[in-house]
Design a protein that fits this description.
- The chain folds into 5 domains: about 180 residues; about 140 residues, PAS domain (Beta-Lactamase, 2-Layer Sandwich); about 100 residues, PAS domain (Beta-Lactamase); about 70 residues; about 180 residues, Histidine kinase-like ATPase, C-terminal domain (Heat Shock Protein 90), CATH 3.30.565.
- The chain has a 5-stranded antiparallel beta sheet, sandwiched between helices. It has a 5-stranded antiparallel beta sheet with strand order 7-6-10-9-8.
- It is built from 21 helices and 17 strands.
- The protein is of the alpha+beta class and about 750 residues long.
- Helix content is about 60%, strand content about 15%.
- Helix 2 runs antiparallel to helix 3 and helix 16 packs antiparallel against helix 21.
Amino acid sequence: MDKTSLVEWLRELKPAGGSEHRRLLALPGVIIVVLSIVASLASFLIMIGVTPIIPNLHVTLALIIINVVLVVSLLALIIREIYRITQARRHGRAAARLHVRIVALFSLIAAVPAIVVAIVASVTLNLGLDRWFETNTRNIVNSSISLTQAYLTDTARNLQSATYSMLQDMDGQRTLYSLDRNGFVQLLTLQALGRGLLGAQLLREDGSIAVRSEQGGANLPQPPSEALETAKDGNPVIIPPGPTSNFVGAIIKMREIPDAYLYTVRAVDAQILDSMRLMEANTARYQDMEANRIPTQVIFALLYFGLMLIVLLPAIWTGIAVADRLVRPIRSLIGAADEVTAGNLDVSVPVRSSDGDLGALAGTFNNMVAELKSQRTDLIAAKDQIDERRRFSEAVLSGVTAAVIGVDALGLINIVNRSAEQMFCLEPDAVIGTSLSTHIPEIGQVFEVAHDSGRAVYREQVSMMRGGLTSTFNVQITIEDGTSDERSYVVTIDDITDLVQAQRSTAWADVARRIAHEIKNPLTPIQLSAERIRRRYGKVITEDREVFDQCVETIVRQVGDIGRMVDEFSSFARMPKPKMETIDLRNSLKEAAFLVEVSRSEISFEQRLSETPLYGHFDSRLLGQAFGNIIKNASEAIEAVTGEDDYRGHILLKAYQDKDQLVVEVIDNGKGLPGDNRQRLLEPYMTTREKGTGLGLAIVRKIVEDHGGHMELHDAPADFYNGRGAMIRMVFPATSPDAVVETDSNTTEELQA
């Protein structure tokens, strides 16, 4: 890197504002890194002795101080920079995470090799020391010491044996010692030569020489005074070789000669003795090294750690500098991207040639933002147009009473109008994107048939249960233009339940009028003729008179039954218009219950009526007729239960207000209602009793509907005789509706129209 490139790099490291912090990181950091490397290299060369500088204590201390100061300075810069990076991340600055990751990556790349080298060096040192101080090496050293000690011990043992033998020979020469000293000296010399001794002496207690052998006796080293003191007890004392001598001595007290000690000396091979001394010195050094093994390992580990820091810290600083250079354009891109995300498409990123590929990326980003700005303008215009169309479509759909559901080719719902939400209890947020068959299985089956048929318009009438009631719907499925995979469908659903009921009621009312007209005309002549026959021929017929009277009575009774049935037909065909007045619904219910209760004493009646009045606009006569019919049907359902000895019928009457509705419930524990198609019991001429006309519930339903209410057929609640029996619920408006539904033949025809 030349001078120009270095200056440019440092200029790039400095932010646009020229902050003092970035200057501190740039040039001073480079200087400290260079000085650290130079100082570590110089220290290494001085310590190994390849420079004229002698590595004495002062030089070593100076080198340590210089390196520590440089390392601490660089470490302070790195810590400060890391603190800046972490603060940027904590405050959510752009690219802060990436900056941390890059710095961590560079630091890891620099740290791992340095740490591995330090660990390997420490392990290698430990392994080397382990080999030095392993058991085999220690045994060899100890064996060599033992060998030298054994040699000296053997020499001393031989000298001790020779001295003791010489003592026995010389101890009996006391007379010779006293009378003839020369003869004693000659004998002492012969004893020393005969035993291979260097010489022999007789010493007094004070250490002075009394007698010495002629050969070598004058040059013998004198024994230490401690040896004489030890020899006083009569045991021989061995005197090992001194640091500079190669003689082994022995001293023992004479038994017969008073105040005399026999002192003998034998020479040891000087070469062997020097080798022994060298071996002992080496062994001492070995043991000293073994004792200082852990401190040595710690010192070398610290040395390796220092070298690792010298290598690692500059690498980390360099990594931080490179990371700054990489992150700067990325941070600009992220900041610009955030502006774009916030909706600002006028932002641009400065492009620098020194950024390389990142600069090219910045240019591409600027082009993309310009293209996005152009496209957004077009999209806004298109969106405004689409929103205008959507608002128009939603306004149209919200005003349609029929349920409208948009479905794609896979049967997934993409739009529902308000009528569909209310009709099928759908939540728009929950059904969008889900299958039509999941929420409305019956319509889903029709959709599958329409999808497979391929017809542009498919129509079908469907009956389904809703809230325990059977409703009838006209379903029309229209296929929009498009390919088989992309086309969508519009499902239109009309609830025609009331229309179907009105058509059926109109048809049955017309049938009832015709039947009543055709049957009622001949009934009176038939009855009169039967009575006339009984009066005229009753006295004439004497045989089988009882049979005659029975036949005439049967004709009259059946004509009466047919007449009553015709009256019911007429009542159903021409229901009177209700005359509304404000009354308490509870009174009509009590009166109807009383009429049935007095005639059915075997049935227990229970009333749970609201404590507050239940006012509404009703026709009291028609309302009482409806309540009486329902209670009468309940009592007949109880009578139909047979074969249970402990059974007793029970009818529960309930009347209460639920928000803006008045509810009347008649519950019995009779035989109950059929499970299938029970709603058809409200249609004319539908009955489950043998003698029923099928008009009772139809009339009650018409009365309820004329009062703006509706009827529901349910099983008895679970807490009422374990759900045994039936419950008829009639719901009326609590307040007078603005327009009371008046259903007669004319209004039915209007409904059909």
